[in-house]
Every structure is written in C-alpha cells, then in structure tokens.
Design goal:
globular; 4 helices; alpha+beta
C-alpha cells in the first residue's frame, strides 16, 4: 500500500504548485504560470468533447492552448483545492472549482476539476485534467454550440 495523505493548506510542493496554478492565472501572470511546467510537460484532457484538444505535448503546445483559451474565457475565481498527495510517486490529486464566463457568448463558465498531477523538482511533468465537458458546451466557448455536434 502506498502512503497517501490529504494535505492541509501549507508549504508542500503540491500546494505550491496548485497555489501558483490558480493565483498566477487569476493575476494574468502567464509567463510565470508557464514556469510551473517542465519543457517536456504533458497536459491531457480525457473528457474533452470532439473538436477540443485531448493532449498537449511540451511547453510550446501548452502555451499556445493557454493563449487560445484565455481568448475565450475569463476566469474570475478558483476555490481552494483539496489535495490528496502520494509523495512516493511525486503525484497528487487536486479537486477545485472555478467561476468565470465565456468571452464569446457571455454565458457562465463554472467548472469543477479533478486533476492528477505528476511533478519532479517542483515542476509539473504531467497534468491530467478531468473536467465536465457539458460546462464547456453549455457556455458555448466555441461560438455556436450547434457546430459542436
């Protein structure tokens, strides 16, 4: 059995990563946000609907996706993440929410995330983002939800 624990807010690597992830995005500090990742990092979206990326490989792909995303959505708030960490695997799971709106339609974008994050030397190596695709479709981030069929 591996050792895992639910972490209270503190100075652990998972908390530093998630605090940076949420705060830097909210503050619009995108270059600093990108420094959370290794150059070879992978970012996956297992529940992405058709027409949306499912896997980004490398910091350049993550950068491009982030700039596209921030042209479609305004994130106004993140909840404090609940983190379950496994220090033996340098991996943690974070559960958190965001409130925002689509910049395309003005519709709300209120999302719940379950993220599985692997890290090394304090940087993200693999981020698997489980989010509700219905929120994306209902907020109509792509412009016209009828085009998403």
């Amino acid at each position: 059995m591996t050792q895992s624990q639910q972490l209270e807010a503190g100075d652990s690597i998972p908390h530093r990563i998630m605090h940076g992830f949420t705060k830097l995005l909210l503050d619009g500090k995108l270059e600093q946000w990108l420094e959370l990742y290794t150059s070879e990092a992978i970012f996956e979206f297992p529940y992405a609907p058709a027409g949306y990326p499912q896997k980004l490989e490398g910091k350049a792909a993550i950068t491009n996706h982030l700039h596209n995303l921030l042209g479609m959505i305004e994130i106004q708030q993140f909840s404090e993440p609940v983190i379950l960490a496994d220090s033996t695997k340098q991996q943690f799971v974070a559960e958190f929410t965001c409130k925002g709106r689509s910049l395309v339609t003005g519709q709300p974008y209120n999302q719940t995330y379950i993220s599985v994050v692997s890290h090394s030397n304090g940087k993200i190596t693999h981020y698997k983002d489980y989010w509700n695709p219905m929120v994306v479709l209902e907020s109509d981030l792509g412009g016209n939800k009828h085009d998403q069929r």
